[in-house]
Amino acid sequence: MPVVSTNPAANSALNYLNDSSTQEGGLLAQLASGQRIVQASDDAAGLAIGTQLQASIAVYQQNAANIQQGSSILQTADGALAQISNVLQRMMALATEAASGQVTNIQRSQDINTEYTQLKSEITSIVSSTTYAGQTLLSGSFLSNVKFLVGTLSSNFITISVATVDTAGLLGNSGSTVSSATTALAAIGQLNSAINSITQDRAKIGAYESQFSFSGQDIATNIQNVSAAASVVLDADVAAVKAKLAAADVRTQAAVAALTQAAQLPSELLKLIQVPAQP
Predict the structure, then answer these.
(1) Helix or strand (DSSP H, E) at 171
(2) Which of 274 and 204 is assigned the larger pLDDT?
(3) How far apart are CA 266 and CA 126, in angstroms?
(4) What is the maximal distance between C-alpha atoms in the chain?
(5) What's the DSSP call for residue 110?
(6) How many C-alpha atoms does 13 have within 13 Å on its Cβ side?
(7) Are 58 and 50 in contact (CB under 8 A)?
(8) How far, rounded to the nearest angstrom, does the alpha carbon of residue 150 sit from its chain's CA centroid?
């Protein structure tokens, strides 16, 4: 029914224009931010799921950092133990030389034993100077029962325990000197025991490093998979959004044209009641 007091066609066109403009603004926000969910009202459930996935990613990333730090600590300790092993092997060579009959007592006490004693002191120096972030690694209790969190649960720990190097007990009294053939023979037995002990410690550290390596690979896979899942929920599909934006733009232009046309209806109706001019 054509009327002049109200304009239903214009109101309808305006509503469609508002809807298209709102949709167009939301699509532009998605393109600008790269996010499918710009505000919570866009997808409340998706936002909750995506936030949980992002939290898991943050935890996994910190787990990866924990593993890297743990590996660095173990590598530092292993490097020091390798040096101690090298020193012990040199001491073994000296003890073997001192135990041989062609060496005089003067040579044993003044030459061989002097180097042997200095090497023994070097082991003490290595133990005391091997630190990580101010914590000594081969003495004290820092590595006695340390736990590294490597998962999303509070129970996902890798616990490492590395034995301290007791410099006094490592060689004992029988390995303290090679100043005579008798003490040199005794030192050989003690040095063999010390080398075996250090080798066992290094093997244990190597097993921990292998465990860290596999955990690191698993965490890297988890980060990749969870990131992909979060992307599906949270990231905007640029191609799809662009297609929707083009369609919304066409509807907006159509609504503007319709509104313009509808706004002219009352004036067109007035022509019906205009009195023709008399000649």
Answers:
(1) helix 167-171
(2) 204
(3) 98
(4) 151
(5) I
(6) 17
(7) no
(8) 10
